[in-house]
Amino acid sequence: MTEDDKVQLQAHLAKGFVKVVFQKANGDIRTMICTTNRGMVPNLLSNATPKTTLEQRIEKNPFYEMELAERREEICNVCEWIVEAMTDEARWRSFRFDSVISFSDMGGKILWQRNKA
């Protein structure tokens, strides 16, 4: 994913919900409906600051701060919206930009897809 692709994804996330498909560290493919637009985030989460796994690790061990500074540009924090049979749920999640396979609007239009080279 180029820097321009990252900017495009961040712009779409700032406007509203985006469907992001990415590969997790364990190799699983994951689809997430998410946004960075705090106006679309439920009240309980809108005042909370998302924490990456690394930031959580810093709270336990300050020596991880150097690692966080090096990787901050690689991570995108988003609010994931989960619609299930009985409840709607939202929570802060993150993904690495280099793990993104594709992203599309909520109408299904693919806005970007990784080359299959």
Structural descriptors:
single chain, six-stranded antiparallel sheet, 6 strands, globular
Please specify the SSE layout and strand pairing.
Blueprint: H1 3-15, E1 18-23, E2 29-35, H2 43-46, H3 53-60, H4 65-71, E3 75-83, E4 88-96, E5 100-104, E6 110-113
Major sheet summary line: 6 strands, antiparallel
Structural class designation: alpha+beta
Number of domains: 1
Rounded to the nearest angstrom, the distance between the terminal CA atoms is: 13 Å
Shape label? globular
In DSSP terms (H or I, runs of 4 or more residues), the helix count works out at 4
Number of strands: 6
Mean of pLDDT: 76
Question: In short, what is this structure?
Answer:
The chain contains four helices and six strands. The chain is α+β, with helices and mostly antiparallel strands and 117 residues long.
Please characterize this protein's 3D structure:
This protein starts with a helix and ends with a strand. It is built from four helices and six strands; from the N terminus they run αββαααββββ. Strands 4-3-2-1-5-6 form a six-stranded antiparallel sheet, with helices on one face. It is globular and about 35 Å long. Strand 1 (18-23) and strand 2 (29-35) form a beta hairpin. With 117 residues, it is an alpha+beta fold. The longest helix is centred in the first third of the chain and has 13 residues, at 3-15. The protein has helices at 3-15, 43-46, 53-60, 65-71; strands at residues 18-23, 29-35, 75-83, 88-96, 100-104, 110-113. The chain has one domain.
